Amino acid sequence: MNKKTVLILACPLVLLLMSLKTAFIPSQGKKPLTDSLKRPAKFGFGRPATLQEIAAWDIDVRPDGKGLPAGQGDVKKGKLLYAQKCAICHGVDGTEKPGVKLPGNALVGDTLATSKPKTIGNYWPYATTLFDYMRRAMPYNLPGSLSNNEVYSITAYLLNANKIIKADVVLDAKNLPKIVMPAKKLFIMDDRKGGPEIK
Ligand code: HEC
């Protein structure tokens, strides 16, 4: 191949690469694209959500217990439910055994006094958040399937297993927010004001 042929072959390649550059790399300084069509006031589909539909999503529980539903649960029922619905991923008793990798996290561990793995007893600052999380996200394969009583029971079981409440406590919206979690003292309130405050 002589020099001339190489040049002739290279020319279309250069042109192709240049066109690719303009196609894929947005050039600076151009006006941003805007809608060229006027939007209609309504698209003509959808409907306002019903109060029941909104209530089904509006299930957040705050740290102080605001939003906790009616109902109650105890450790005994929670133990049974845990075995049926949670043990397959979180271990028979919620602990991690040597050499066994759990699909979910270990939920029961040493107390805060002995070590600091990230389990309920060592890491969660509020018992109410535990309730909220399990109600909306667990079991992992079927979130939203637990009744409020079931969530109260499983919360009671896991708090008891983590040595935070006694085995005879019946949990409800009144006493759950009063439980002081051992790890609460490890957290500080975020009192930044919205500026560049960095802690
Ligand atoms: C199919 C497996 C699976 C099942 C069944 C399951 N979980 Fe989980 N669970 C997970 C996974 C995976 C995570 C981690 C999720 C993440 O980090 O986003 C998790 C996280 C959690 C956590 C948070 C742990 C932490 O400290 O961060 C809790 C609490 C929990 N699950 C409780 C339950 C309870 C109670 C049940 C039974 C009602 C249950 N899970 C059933 C897989 C499962």
Q: Can you walk me through this structure?
A:
It is a single chain. The chain is mainly α. It has a domain at 71-97 and 104-186: Orthogonal Bundle (Cytochrome Bc1 Complex, Chain D, domain 2), CATH 1.10.760.10. The protein contains seven helices and two strands. It has a two-stranded antiparallel sheet. Helix 3 (75-85) crosses helix 7 (148-161). The mean pLDDT is 86. Heme C is lined by residues 85-86, 88-90, 103-105, 107, 118, 133-134, 138-141, 154. Heme C binds at residues 85-86, 88-90, 103-105, 107, 118, 133-134, 138-141, 154.
Kindly report the average pLDDT value: 86
Number of helices: 7
| Uncertain stretches of 5 or more adjacent residues | none
N- and C-termini, Cα separation:
67 Å
Helical content class? 25-40%
Structural class: mainly alpha
Order of secondary-structure elements:
HHEHHHHHE
Strand order of the largest sheet: 1-2
Beta content comes to under 5%
Overall strand count = 2
Task: Assign the CATH superfamily of the domain at 71-97 and 104-186.
Answer: Cytochrome c-like domain
CATH structural fold name of the domain at 71-97 and 104-186? Cytochrome Bc1 Complex, Chain D, domain 2
CATH class of the domain at 71-97 and 104-186: Mainly Alpha
Tell me which CATH architecture of the domain at 71-97 and 104-186 applies here. Answer: Orthogonal Bundle
General form: extended
Rg calculated over all Cα atoms: 28 Å
The molecules bound to the chains, other than polymers, are:
heme C
Biggest pleated sheet: 2 strands, antiparallel
